[in-house]
Amino acid sequence: xxxxxxxxxxxxxxxxxxxxxxxxxxxxxxxxxxxxxxxxxxxxxxxxxxxxxxxxxxxxxxxxxxxxxxxxxxxxxx
Length: 78
Fold this sequence. Notes:
By secondary structure, this protein is mainly alpha-helical. About 55% of the residues lie in helices and about 5% in strands. The chain has one domain. The protein has four helices and two strands, in the order αααββα. Strand 1 (about 45) and strand 2 (about 50) form a beta hairpin. The protein is elongated and about 55 Å long. One of its GO terms (molecular function) is transposase activity. InterPro entries: IS30-like_HTH, Transposase-Integrase. This is Transposase.
């Protein structure tokens, strides 16, 4: 199963639409994404009762760098 990550542009649209009090369903329809995707994104990055796209993108990039298989060999040993 393939999927796409949310882009900064999509996150910015979520932020604007949330500020305009759009429902999760209407945001999902506008972005052509699943309601659960929007819901998880907002709950994962909801700081002080507000969603901020730039902060959410930074969190995503930080987590993305940390994911994956750990390095087996270290530069010190070679």
